[in-house]
Amino acid sequence: MTASLDAFLGSQCGSDAQGQRLADTIRHLSAAAVKVRNTIIEGGTGTDLGGKREATNAGGDVQKELDVLADRVFEEAARASGIAFFGSEEQDAPIPMAAEGDLAIAIDPLDGSSNIDTNVSIGTIFSILPVEDAHRAEPKSVFMQPGHRQKAAGFFIYGPQLLLVLTVGNGTHVFLFSPKFGGFVEMTASVAIAEKTQEFAINASNYRHWDRQMRSYIDDCLAGEEGPREKNFNMRWIGSLVADCYRILTRGGVFLYPGDQRKGYAKGRLRLVYEANPVAMVVEQAGGSATDGVTRILDLVPDDLHARTGLVFGSKREVERVGRYMVDPSAIAERSPLFSKRSLFRA
Ligand SMILES: O=P(O)(O)OC[C@H]1O[C@](O)(COP(=O)(O)O)[C@@H](O)[C@@H]1O
Ligand SMILES: [Mg+2]
Ligand SMILES: [Mg+2]
């Protein structure tokens, strides 16, 4: 007998009133994801989903048709689920919703916007936070809670399959949308990320903008068997956080989007509240780690709904190793000057 998302939510979200509202909210988000996925399947019939709009969002990214469309669909779902506040990548300020609501949603309605046109997996990332009375006077403050306060987090992937990766604080679970079944069914009951890895994910075109520590880490991976790591590494970069994260949940790996020297990139590209926090909760619940390079993501206190953070996550041992490079690269390996000369990027 296949376990449905509905049954899972009924048994895992708690039997108190807030638990039931949490389950209901995730049901509404799931229905919204099916709508977005149907729109994607329809593709360019009528609208160019990857078409650029005039506007930019709060992060300065040019909005595409699908960014805005997905934002509307999820805003509607949030309203229907009776939450108190909705904070979206695509909107400057949080939107107050039900006055009596005790939950808030932070959302990246469409993750991987640069891949819309290319038929590569894209997704939606969400974080569900508790709302207390103190938050009501200043809606922004609800999103300033550290990630370890999240009640639930996850993401949908619009790829070859429509998947929901979800945690309600009791492991990480994967659900598959089955048209035959008419809903989401459990595909993986408890995800476990391999502790060690030989695969990294980073946008290497930014090499020249990274600091010395980040370059050293990547140099040592690239040096392979002859380098201080004494093993060969593979590299993958999809450019959709949801898809890179799912690969790491499936077969291990480490993802890195560090801060760099480019204007506006001091804290990287990814957003703490609706990208890094939900991914970090999913990853930790699957036995992995997530940091900004040094500090645990879930302990960072956001200072804005759209705050950015460096992000390193994945196989625990590798994330710890990256942290050691950040603090003191010279302590990692007795590196002869030869290794830095061997870097492919410096050749
Ligand atoms: O284009 P870059 O610099 O490699 O950045 C890729 C990253 O940016 C993102 O697309 C940012 O998310 P949005 O598409 O929601 O803005 C991530 O999904 C991805 O990991
Ligand atoms: Mg995103
Ligand atoms: Mg987005």
Automatic annotation (TrEMBL):
Tell where it localizes. Cytoplasm
Swiss-Prot/TrEMBL GO biological process terms: fructose 1,6-bisphosphate metabolic process; fructose 6-phosphate metabolic process; fructose metabolic process; gluconeogenesis; sucrose biosynthetic process
Query: Which parts of the sequence bind Mg(2+) 1?
Result: 89, 108, 110
What's the Enzyme Commission number for this chain? 3.1.3.11
Catalytic activity, reaction form: beta-D-fructose 1,6-bisphosphate + H2O = beta-D-fructose 6-phosphate + phosphate
> What pathway annotation does it carry?
Carbohydrate biosynthesis; Calvin cycle
- Any idea what this protein is called? Fructose-1,6-bisphosphatase class 1
- According to its UniProt entry, this protein's organism is Fulvimarina manganoxydans
Classification from the root reads: Bacteria, Pseudomonadati, Pseudomonadota, Alphaproteobacteria, Hyphomicrobiales
Q: What gene makes this protein?
A: fbp
